[in-house]
Amino acid sequence: MSVPLAEARVQLGSHIDRARRQAEHARRHLFDRASLSQAGQTPFETVWSDGAMHLRYYPPLGEVTQPPRTPLVLVPPLAVNMLVYDLFPHRSLVRYLRTRGFELYLIDWGRPSRAQNARNLAGYFAQLLPQMLDRVRARTGCKRLNLHGWSLGGLFVLCQAALAADDEIANLVVVGAPVDYHDNGVLGERYRWLSRHAGRLHELTGLSAAQLPSAVLRSPGWVNSLAFKLTTPMASLRSYGRLLRNLHDDEYVRSHATHAAFLNGMVAYPGGVVADFIDYLWVDNVMADGRLPMADTQATLADVRAPILNITGQDDLIVTPRCSQAMADLVGAADITCKVEPGGHVSIVSGEQAARQSWPAIADWLIARD
Asked: What is the pLDDT of residues 124-141, one digit of tens each?
């Protein structure tokens, strides 16, 4: 056999093998994506559940030689699944915090059913969240807790800190947490437009979102996934273009499927929550005045006295740094640190840059105040 012919056969075999890998990866990505996902592999214990919501416990990893740390509770936003906190075995926020010696709890809000459509924002931060925190206190024997809230979870922990007694919350870490919805880049312009027109409609008719049937306002999970992707539509399209070019690469396909498992697995917003978005946050923008998005309370953001670490993403289009850092002039905390990190709304909590920069900063900041 001539050398050129042998080389041609080797190249042909390589092309055939590449095509087989591409076909297999395409099949699994379309029909068996769960087998490709690397998310959710850190073990945990479910210490409480009502069948819908769950309280997870992640014990410290390895032998802990330092004194016990103040328990840390991760408070997620609504609509997302919990994979974002444990995205890859090598890039997992819960695993990292365990290695730093934290006794770690995570609240999983679950998937709200249609029977829970009337549940509103205050139902989460003023009722369910303190119940979960009391379960952590009863289990650990520690009254003071550290709270970490990302996105709407950051709004939840701010509001809960305003409502709680001063000796119940030790420190707050808020990541991409919205406050001034009208000072929020492009989205802020849309909220201001909605505020003007909804205000006129209310003057004419007395109608508000809270008066509409909650079932009408319910936002299904697939709608939330689509809305999130449409905030950066070109980036979403480019990601699939890169997938097609790298369909032969097992590691790349697994990484893409892992991210897709999170983005495509969002859950519904109850109708009552959407009504509060519209009335309290988008139209009236109450947080920018220091008020809480709930009725019948005298508490304000000025009642938040726990130290705060505020982390925002310089490329975040959903919650801009200005939107989030508005809290600095509203809270009563004397100790507040604001950091702007590279990345967008999801990557500041789970991206590679976050793993290198903000995760160590969060752990060091909490440990310094323990």
From this structure: 999 999 999 999 999 999
